[in-house]
Amino acid sequence: MSGIEEMERIDVDRVRSYPPRTSEFTQPFWEALAAGRLQTTRCAACGALSFPPKPVCPHCWHGEVRWTPLQPLGRLYSWTRVHAGPEMFAAELPYEVGIVDLDAGLRLALRLVAVPGREFAPDMPVRLVVLRFRDGPLLAAMLR
Amino acid sequence: MSGIEEMERIDVDRVRSYPPRTSEFTQPFWEALAAGRLQTTRCAACGALSFPPKPVCPHCWHGEVRWTPLQPLGRLYSWTRVHAGPEMFAAELPYEVGIVDLDAGLRLALRLVAVPGREFAPDMPVRLVVLRFRDGPLLAAMLR
Amino acid sequence: MRRAAILGTAAVPVRKYQRKASEPIQTVEHEMIARLVVEAMQDAQVEKSEVNAIVCAHPRPYTKQKYFSTFMAHYLRLPCSGVVMETMGNGMTAALAFDKACDEILLGRAEVALAFGVNMEMSVTSAEHMKDSVRATGDVDFHSPSGLIPISWYAMDAVRYMHEYGATRAQLASVAVKNRAHAALNPLAQYRAPITLDEVLAQRPIVEPLGLYEVPPRGDGAACLVIVSEARAKASGLPYVLVRGRGFFHEGAHQISEVPNDMIRFVAAETAGRLAYEAAGIGPGDLDLAELYAPCTIVEVLAGEALGLAPRGQGAAAAAAGETRLGGRIPISTSGGLTSRGHPSYATPLYGMVELAEQLRGRAGARQVEDAELGLSSNELGNYNAALVHVLEARR
Amino acid sequence: MRRAAILGTAAVPVRKYQRKASEPIQTVEHEMIARLVVEAMQDAQVEKSEVNAIVCAHPRPYTKQKYFSTFMAHYLRLPCSGVVMETMGNGMTAALAFDKACDEILLGRAEVALAFGVNMEMSVTSAEHMKDSVRATGDVDFHSPSGLIPISWYAMDAVRYMHEYGATRAQLASVAVKNRAHAALNPLAQYRAPITLDEVLAQRPIVEPLGLYEVPPRGDGAACLVIVSEARAKASGLPYVLVRGRGFFHEGAHQISEVPNDMIRFVAAETAGRLAYEAAGIGPGDLDLAELYAPCTIVEVLAGEALGLAPRGQGAAAAAAGETRLGGRIPISTSGGLTSRGHPSYATPLYGMVELAEQLRGRAGARQVEDAELGLSSNELGNYNAALVHVLEARR
Ligand SMILES: [Zn+2]
Ligand SMILES: [Zn+2]
């Protein structure tokens, strides 16, 4: 666990526009996220990481996995600004989403948090942050 | 047209639980029904009747059909009493539906209107009637 | 000519899994299917790298994850040059998933294909659920407004059958008693406590003359089959189930024929059955058991007659006489059938296949049909307006 | 070996057909399809009695008539011993309907099969519609909450492509200009008034960098194909279109690969294309035209590259240079493509087939590709995570 950074937690004073569900299996992920820690599953057989966390290893279909902390650092692979969105996201338009390659070798897609005066571009280094909505957390990324 | 009976119109003081749609093509059917007349389509090529009315003859796939009046008389092929129904029909439960073979050689499925003291049974002669709901007509059948 | 075989199976017991949206912990369909895939693959002793196709029964609209088949190809990280798709066709939905998975084998596009389905609907009330199913009861503008529900068609079959053949309520109800006795022996079944004929007859009416125990219960469920080429099955050294014959027929009517016909002669089952028997080179008398998609007691009777398992008009009497019971002349629905094994609709046909695969591999435990060699699966849609019949053979 | 052919086609112009529930007169999908079946059958000069299978693209949830395929078998009173079913698979839905109809021919279950699809959604606002499509943007619990929409994936492809290859906004936008010029010549197209590059670049952004004219418009549509065996096609004496090669590939990811990969190399199109070319015994250089399922300008560029129609990284420049225009080296989307012909999603792939069938039978009028002999159809799902490619050949 040493060397793993905690994620910045940013309060957002509304509820999530499209709340994720929690299953018995994914509950540890959401609980850790709320506490500022990023973790996912690692296959007990082949050792491969998976994200989102999965009860079955997508690489070798082994059915035993373990929770592992992840360093919340990576690079922006690509991004876009969404100007026309679904009804539930209307109040947030426009907003940015992006694809992030974590240093750990996992690719994620998530909401981006803009830093005033800096525009996103591919290959920029990012860090993951936790958006603390009134009803629960969401993972997002910011330029480093 | 001679010899075709008009259908009894029975007022029902509510709206239809599951209102049918009217298309440009089926509009003549619904307008005639509201006026107590039963009509359907007959193929301009092979002469076969169809019910529900269709813009294409189901027997020979000819694309030209003509409206024809139907004698609203037939026999009950089978029936049931529905005790557990969809939400929109909840207020009407229980109710009876049946399959009617018209003398003209067409088989229909429709709501049955009970006559106090008489239970439905297969092969009983029936006549078709129009239920005049507040929002439009529906076809139904009664024991003769 | 290539042939397809079932080499592995897995299913969860039929019951309520889906939780209301308001509950903090939700059941997630794709986790369930992923676990079943692992289990079915272990059963088949097949490697992930051999799998090359996914055919999946389209889930209920209550399943949040959209485009489930492509999502599962992702969740399982499974590249495929055999097809990845979902099938849809009323009650036949999951049977089509099985059938199209077999087609990928027949067409040489895959040596191993997964067929799976998940049906989650128990967070939705029956009255609410029927708001949707009312759209399936015939022409949505000419039939649905009358208040028909899917099983009302079967009820009218029952009325007509009793009228024409003098079959009794008790004879029909005996099918439910028999199926419950089978379900008592099946760990996958939803309702396993034995019931008596009197209890069946005493239930509140749902669609007359059928009462609560003669119509399908609702339930959640999921199942997965590993379908392989005959050559791959042989090479496994494991017992497997060969798809020896297949027939499909749609009679060109949905719920009702507008031209008056003999509604209780299930022409689609008759024709699909004939095609399947011909392909298999057998007759109905050669079967050791049959697993029929029969949402109501009457449907099992009529489908059985159409498939040649009882003479016309005598299916109900045959059931009452115990001919279709375990140990009888031709055991039908040893799983407990839709009325007791349960009916998670879009997965139901796969449960039928799982039961046949258990029986034909000699793994059915207390409900094992002795020396079962040939089994029949029949699935339907509408008022048995279409039937998809498979003849399965034990290979050990 | 049996092969399948297209012998008849029919489609309605893409536009708004569906009306709000509050309007007194409604558009009914099954009437529309019935009329198209008659039209396609006349085109094919086939008799009703020869038709033996129906494969239908699963309609949108806004289509009231449920279990559309079995309902249509009823509405058309068409008994079938070939399959009657619906397919579902994201944007590939209608391509799978075509493909499974061909399979019925290949497997000898039908000599003539109908493949049709109807997409009605225009009574629903975009914001409302996207409430549903947000469930398709990845993992419903891990991706959807971020606000991804289906075309945001393509936008991110565009950003990455411009970053890696130095392609320009104007080069990408030229695809939209070219497609509109094609659509101007296609009576089935939704948007036919010519547009300029400046107009495309001046549109309001939808998903940056893509603006309104570079993303798919919404529309209603319906199309029907008559698929026959090669023998039946030959016997007709009519010009027909032979399915000469076919390939499918799913890369095992949906929208995103959790293992970082080269996202703008469309591996599924590459692999499915290779399989289709091999089956047809041709290379991309032999094609006379291609009809690509490309919801956004960038998708046409990337799919074209993956299918070997332009070198990697040079597809946008090739489009800007006019190579994919009518009269160019390899005309792409002569129908006007999804951006201008229109995109009634669950019918879109059938419109692509209709266009190829028109071209390969020499009936495309002002947009005819001279002496068109070989055409390619490519359909996709997700972020081109799966591709279904057909090579079609003119036979006169
Ligand atoms: Zn592993
Ligand atoms: Zn006719």
Describe the fold and architecture.
Chain A is mainly beta and 144 residues long. Chain A has one domain (9-14, 22-143). Chain A is built from 1 helix and 9 strands; from the N terminus they run βαββββββββ. Chain A has a 5-stranded mixed barrel. In chain A, strands 3-2-4 form a 3-stranded antiparallel β-sheet, covered by helices on one side. Chain C starts with a strand and ends with a strand. In chain C, helix 6 (169-183) crosses helix 10. In chain C, the strands form 2 sheets. Chain C has a 9-stranded mixed β-sheet with strand order 3-2-4-7-1-8-11-10-9, sandwiched between helices. In chain C, strands 5-6 form a two-stranded antiparallel sheet. Chain C has a domain at 4-124 and 218-236: Thiolase/Chalcone synthase (Peroxisomal Thiolase, Chain A, domain 1), CATH 3.40.47. With 396 residues, chain C is of the alpha/beta class. Chain C is built from 13 helices and 11 strands. At the C-D interface, helix 2, strand 3, helix 3, strand 8 and helix 9 of C face helix 2, strand 3, helix 3, strand 8 and helix 9 of D. One zinc ion (ZN) binds at residues 43, 45-46, 48, 57, 59-60, 62 of chain B.
